Amino acid sequence: MAMDRHTRVVGWLKVTLPLMALAILATLFLLADRIDPEAALPYAEVDVEDLAREPRMTAPTYAGTTSDGGALTLSADEARPSAEGAPARAQTLRLQLDTPDGAATNLTAAEAVLDNVAREIVLSGGVVITTSTGYRVETAEMTAKLDRSGLQSQTPVTATGPAGDLSAGGMTLGQDNRTPGGYLLVFNGGVRLVYLPGG
After folding, report:
1. Where are the domains of the chain?
2. pTM of the predicted model as reported, rounded to 2 decimal places
3. 148, 123 in Cβ contact below 8 A?
């Protein structure tokens, strides 16, 4: 008698459990969010022909050491390698130069052109320089050496610093020949300083 009851329960479960599983699955499908086929896969808007014509790198970074022991780091939003005689170019460039004397100089620029022959990079498009000694300099164009610690601008510069506000025809940052291991920031070409006492 107990065996008959056990057999009936097992037979009933064999039918009921699969039906319950189907009911649960059906409920899940009915309650699930509808998929919009149009918005299922986002595609990047990339011009493949333009990429093939002008290859580029996104967010490249370069780090190296100059001959005098400075640490140079370059990063950009986008860079295009040199091709067919055209120089390598970068957009939204950031440059950091840490000299052996412990000073740090940071530059940002909208554009940059790399000159491999001269071992330098020319930054343009609103160059902003900040130094750990408290100077902030703005100029239209700046040249940074890649093989040694050196910056030069031959375009007018405006600056704010510990002594006050100044303007000049250009500026250089490089090794101080009179002080081994020292570096000088020099403004030249008609320097005009507005001295701020206590600045």
Report:
1. 49-195
2. 0.69
3. no
166 close to 144: Cβ distance less than 8 angstroms: no
| Cα-based torsion angle of the residue sequence 115, 119, 122, 123 in order, rounded to the nearest 10 degrees | 120
- Give all strands (DSSP E) within 40-87, no chain letters: 57-58, 61-65, 71-80
Angstrom CA distances, 119 to 19, 54, 66, 100, 113, stand at: 77, 23, 11, 20, 11
Cα distances (Å, whole numbers) of residue 178 to 10, 98, 174, 184, 191:
100, 20, 12, 10, 22
Q: Is 148 helix (H, G, I), strand (E, B) or coil?
A: coil
Q: Say whether pLDDT at 168 is over 90.
A: yes
Query: 84 to each of 10, 28, 53, 119, 145, how far by Cα in Å?
Result: 80, 60, 12, 19, 24
Q: Look at the domain 49-195 and name its fold.
A: lipopolysaccharide transport protein A fold (2.60.450)
Q: Could you report the per-residue pLDDT of 132-158, keeping only the tens digit for each? A: 989 999 999 999 998 888 999 999 999
Segment holding 147, helix H or strand E: none
- In what helix (H) or strand (E) does residue 49 lie, and over which residues does it extend? helix 48-53
Residue 137: phi and psi, rounded to 5, are -120, 140
pLDDT at 119: 87
Q: Judge residue 167's burial from the number of C-beta atoms within 10 Å of its C-beta, 0-12 exposed, 13-18 middle, 19 or more buried.
A: middle
